[in-house]
């Protein structure tokens, strides 16, 4: 009897068929390894966090998809801080993911001296409130975790900076943290009053008299929720999470916007936020949500670069099609090359 040797491609396909169920049933794997970042020290004039309320609290979401961006963002924050040891990071991860322990280990290995906490976010908290948007990435439950920061974070934390994972700081985060928030406002962010505000809501919203009157007594302007300074106590006292959820519930009944978690924030806060200089959110560097075309910086100085939009710098760099401004992100990339994986 003659046995024919199966071709290599067939063997590979058989292997994938057999092994895929095993991979699918195990923990999420982060297929990236990162170099250890240097330790950053406080300058001599930094106040002690044990005797003063001088800690700077930074909150970010953390997941396997954007972990490379998060690593670069953390490095940039520490590198440009005059008091890096006074920064406390608060990372929000999905409780439904199996990768939380791996994410923790990745952060600890890359930043051995980092002062951080990880908090699980229950996807079911918001899953029933999410409506489909123009880009599927915006529908991830973790994208809505910023709405629940005052509930997730411990009560003793009174003020926090929320940052997206696709940012790079080139200035001291303590300056942003010192943004004054007046008594009649809850959060601070750069506003963009030249943007077409009507674009963020559907004709259904604007044609409904009771809904369009939402902004009648406010000078409502667009702001990007990827960079916010939040007074957590005022948020808690005002029940603003519930107010945002009410708009999301209405969106499920009648489509009043198209763009993920941003419009509910605009509905609740636009026209009543503390101003922050535009230098703290040079946003839109990822391009539009459809094509992800390259964009230039806005005029003026820069303290924070934000690759909001479809295109992410690490994806474009790996694909060999970087935008010119992606060169500003690359120096903070801690990814090990494949040649260093075994080193």
Secondary-structure map:
Layout: H1 8-25, E1 56-61, H2 67-79, E2 87-94, H3 100-110, E3 116-121, H4 124-127, H5 149-152, E4 159-163, E5 167-169, H6 173-177, E6 187-189, E7 191-192, H7 203-207, H8 209-212, E8 222-223, E9 227-231, H9 232-238, H10 240-253, H11 262-269, E10 274-275, E11 304-306, H12 313-318
Parallel strand pairs: 1-2, 1-4, 2-3, 6-10
Antiparallel strand pairs: 4-9, 5-11, 6-9, 7-8
The CATH architecture of one domain is Alpha-Beta Complex
Largest beta sheet: what is the strand line-up? 3-2-1-4-9-6-10
> What is the class of one domain in the CATH system?
Alpha Beta
Order of helices and strands: HEHEHEHHEEHEEHHEEHHHEEH
Give the strand tally. 11
